[in-house]
Amino acid sequence: MSWAGWFRIRQNLKESVWPMALLGAVLGPLVALLTRQADRNLDVPKSWQYAPSTATAVLSTTVGAAVGLAGFVVTVTVLAIQMATGTFSARYMRILYRDHLLNATLAVLAGTLTLSFSLLRQVDGTRVPNIGVSVVGLCLVSSLGCFLLFFGRFIRRLRPVAVAALVGQMAKRVITDVTRQAETDTVEPVLAPLGDPVLTVESPRDGAIQAVNVHRLVEWAGGHDLFLVMTAGVGDSVAAGQTVIAVHGKGHVPPQAGRRLQGLLAVGTERTIEEDPAFAIRIMVDVAVKALSAAINDPTTAVQAMDHLSNVLKLLGSTPLKGPLMFVDRDGAPRLALPGRTWEDYLTLGVTEIREYGASSIQVVRRLRAMLEDLQEAVLPEHRPAVAAELARLDATVASGFAGSVDKDRAQTGDPQGIGGPTAVHIASQGPPPTGDRAASEDAVRRW
Questions:
Q1: Are 122 and 182 contained in the same domain?
Q2: Domain termination site, one of 158, 193, 215
Q3: In the prediction, which pLDDT does 4 show?
Q4: Residue 435 falls within a domain, yes or no?
Q5: Do 56 and 183 belong together in one domain?
Q6: Longest dimension (CA), the chain
Q7: What pLDDT score was predicted for residue 447?
């Protein structure tokens, strides 16, 4: 199977709740066999011994409790997904499916259920699986604990700010990984005229490019003395039969090269967050824009989403983004040209729609200005002109949206909290304090 096929399988397993539940269900009978062997080889204290009727009642009750808890977990999950997609973003569902605590809870419940069934078969008039019944009790308590943790975690994650924080953390990890690879394996993307390609590779299906195996593409191109140019990047939507890779050079093109290169591109139904930082920004912007819709009208939620969006943009702004990337082999020869986003692309994605839909909200424009002013100081010097251009666009938006408003002066002032933030303290680098009385100044500082 190709790398792309294994990638899709891994994605499906990550986004499915049944694999861990199936594993727990399989482990249940195995644990029952282990406890049966332990009962044969160990002397169980009287306090751990059960009458056959008591053991049957405990195991039967545990079966019903495990089934009931599993149904309740599924119900809570469905309700959480419905609320998340209606309030936050439909793209957030992919993250909900991957929750490890949800999978662990279902696995423990499934294992407790099959363990109880297996032990029921071992109960007769003269023999009772004493250790097994005690283990079932521990599993039931563990199931209840997992359920409570799961329930509390999902309640917390129904808050928009928790969604933005979770997506922001994932975005930072992706940005760090992608940036590290780009900084170590790329050179400046200067391309000479390449002429007609010797081979074009088409997309095998409709969908979005979810991931690219850059290392193997470079290795393949280097081994055949060829140069690859990708016409679509990670996150782009492609149609079946659309050209995604153009092969250039005078090297040898082996048979089945198209199929081999197709297997190094993962094309799926929708984008993923693994290699696509822009998708994480897309989710955070969706949360903010949904909050600014007329049906919800919650600018404070949009401001909270911008708090985490600002951190992600600040990390991107401190990275020397090159736009199109040129990957080289071990000898330093260019082998792969890959489309890449610039700082302007990320900034436009993170700011434009929030500015558009929040143009009439004084809280949003104030927070947006504070975010841009902070970025102006934090990003690399080559990224600052793009931030200045966004500030100019914000000025024009405020001038149009608040023309004739008594709050125009407030809309033109940045506030990290939107409205109500503390006034910034500005400390002069030289010269005496503005007040002449030193004691009065020190007293004012103490009171502050």
A1: no
A2: 158
A3: 86
A4: no
A5: no
A6: 96
A7: 40
Same domain? For 270 and 298 the reply is: yes
Name the residue among 38, 213, 52 with its Cα closest to residue 128.
52
Distance CA(288)–CA(309), nearest Å, equals 10
* Low pLDDT (below 70) residues in the chain: 84-95, 179-193, 424-448
Distance CA 428, CA 191 (A): 50
- At 291 the pLDDT is 87
The DSSP secondary-structure symbol of 268 reads: E
C-beta of residue 130 within 8 angstroms of C-beta of residue 48: yes
Beta pairing, strands 265-268 & 243-248: unpaired
One domain, residues 53 and 202: no
**Which residue is it, tokens 């406890």?**
35
Which among 36, 64, 45, 251 is positioned nearest to 133, based on CA atoms? 36
What pLDDT sits at residue 89?
Answer: 66
Domain count, the chain: 2
**DSSP letter (8 states) at residue 179:** H
Q: Are residues 176 and 80 in the same domain?
A: no
Structure-token pair, residue 437: 């009385």
Query: How distant is the alpha carbon of residue 148 from its chain centre?
Result: 24
Pinpoint the alpha helices (H) of 292-342. Answer: 299-317
Handedness of CA 331, 334, 335, 337 (dihedral sign): positive
For residue 338, which phi and psi values (nearest 5 degrees)? -125, 130
For residue 438, what pLDDT is reported?
41
Per the DSSP assignment, residues forming a β-bridge with 158 are none
Cβ(397)–Cβ(411) below 8 Å:
no
The parent domain of residue 397 ranges over 161-421
Contacts of 142 (CB under 8 A, 6+ apart): 108, 112
- Same domain, residue pair 235 and 285: yes
- Give the model's pLDDT for residue 141: 92
Query: What is the model's pTM?
Result: 0.79
| pLDDT of the residue at 362 | 93
Token reading at 333: 């020869």
CB 182 within 8 A of CB 329: no
**pLDDT recorded at residue 92:** 67
Are 319 and 187 in the same domain?
yes
Length of the chain: 448
Cα 192 from Cα 185, distance rounded (Å): 20
